[in-house]
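Example (one chain per record):
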Amino acid sequence: MKKRLSSSLQCPDEAERLTHYPVKLMQHEEDTTALQLAQKINQIIANSSTPAMMLQDIAQVLGVAFKVDCCCLVTVQGKASGAEVTANWCVQEYSSASHPDEIFSMEQLDLPVVQCAAEPTIEDISTIQNSLAIGCQNLPLPIKAVLAIATRFGGNKNGVISLIKSQLYDWSESEKRLLRTVESVCAIAFSQVAQTQLITSQQQNLQTCAQHQNLIKQLTILSRSNLEVNQMLQVAIASTAEALEADRGLLILLKYTDPLFRSIPKKQIPKAKATVIGEWSRETESFYLGKEDTQDNSFWLSDCGICRRAFTAESGKPVIIHDNRDRRKDTSTVAPAFVLEKLPAMLLMRLESQGKILGFLALQQAQPRQWQIAELNMVEMVCAQLSNAIIQTQTLRQVQMLVDERTSQLQRSLDVQAKLYERTRQYVEQLRELNQLKDEFLSNMSDRLRYPLTNMRMALRMLRQPGRTPEQQAKYLDILEEECTKEINLINDLLTLQKLETHQERPQFETIDLNTRIEDLAASFEKKFADKGLSISLDLPEESLELQTELESFDRILQELFTNAGKFSERDTIVQLEATHQVVEQVDRVIIKVTNIGRGISEEEATYIFDAFRRGRGRWIPGTGLGLALVKSLVQHLNGGIAVESTPIADTNLSKICFILNLPQFSDEDKPYSESD
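Predicted structure:
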């Protein structure tokens, strides 16, 4: 036993072999583990469908292999790559939903909490710290120990691997060597992610170029279309905002109040009214400008700070507001039409043509946005095309307005000539009718004046003959008196009609008993009607009405209506008189209807039946044609109205003719109706 121990101690080669054998065995096991781990990662790289899924699977494999609480993979943003891509894997204890609301804040990430698997440079330390700040935000575990390494591909850093423990931990050299071993394989995975990002970015650029080309094509087609300028601009702003993926687009035109605005220096703001003539919104309900937000989509240029900045900016230079913090001090007076509280990010570029600023094009975002050079160039091109379209449209509109004005003037001249011709024709027709009426009037008046005079002369001749008995003399004297009375009445009617038409006298109102007055007048006509086989029927109110009117005029109206009914009624018919009380527009009125049966009155005759010396059918019936004209003038003299209705009677050639007399019950027409009446 002692020899073996001694010999073992006395043999240096054997002692060295016994000492180094376990170390070589451990290195062999590490190499095997690294190889297996690298194979798994290569397999994931070969079979993963998406970069995000690939990094997630690699993070899980590394986390399990290193037995850590969390593994975080973060790509490093380079010139060719886009934004950072992050993948996190945590053990079940932290990834489960046992503590969904518990989020641990990340402690200060500096050594010795963070250790590097390789000799780090200052740039490596900065890269690792930045990647941890990006990838470990809101991790559901406290960070107590981190082992990290920056991966390189083609000599450039392209990612960071971070192994995280939730307890203090001293990382072994074997763990560091293993992490260094898999660093190259993970660098390939990060490179694939960068390549995928590059391809996606190029595809997006191609898509953007296609959208821009499509936008240019749409604007070209619009400029050649027959759309009205406001419709064209509305379509243009919608296409532009949609193609550039803005949340909202506005097109604003300026209307200058000073015709000499071009002579005003650029730094001085002219007096101009800005009006939103086109608007497009991706989410109409969210950004719609209702009446409660703004009363009008117009505002003065001097009242909007951001528009003043765009107006005085260098040609082609837009005004860009990234967010609320990026506003300058003069934007505090921004117009409500921009709704900056909802859409704080904005690009505002002016529309300009030949030194004249026509308006502005505004693109707005709900989130901050960095505009690319290509996008700004596209907006500038759109503004140039819209400016040209506006100028061309305004020029064409001015030319069209001039042509329309000249055409309108010519048309007005032709219309005036046509009206003058029509008016002259009407005057000629009226003169012809007046001449005819004059002839009829003179003929009628001659007959009416000559007929009584002839009778009077005949009676005088008969009286002069000798041997006339006293009875014969009395008869001829009665004829003289009767014909003289007719002559006097005709002359009095003419004078009365003239006086009424010139309104020389106001009516002298008095209160009469309507029922009694109508009954007396009807009684005076009963004998005359009886000789023709006519009878009178009265329909009066049970309680007699009081009527404030001019007695002489009222009697003459009813006398003429009865006389007219007696002349034109068929034999053995009834002349009806109906009196009622009505309230029309809170005014008490008396309605009197005189109805007879006779030959109907045509619509044409009804238009002139109340004119002087105009008579309808039945000219053989004696009369002057003044009766109904006198009735109309007397009714108007009493502030009333009169109308005639002719209703045919079935199975006969007769009609029911009704004259409707409408008179105010009281002299004051504004007197309200009382139930006691």
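Caption: The CA atoms of residues 402 and 408 lie 10 Å apart.
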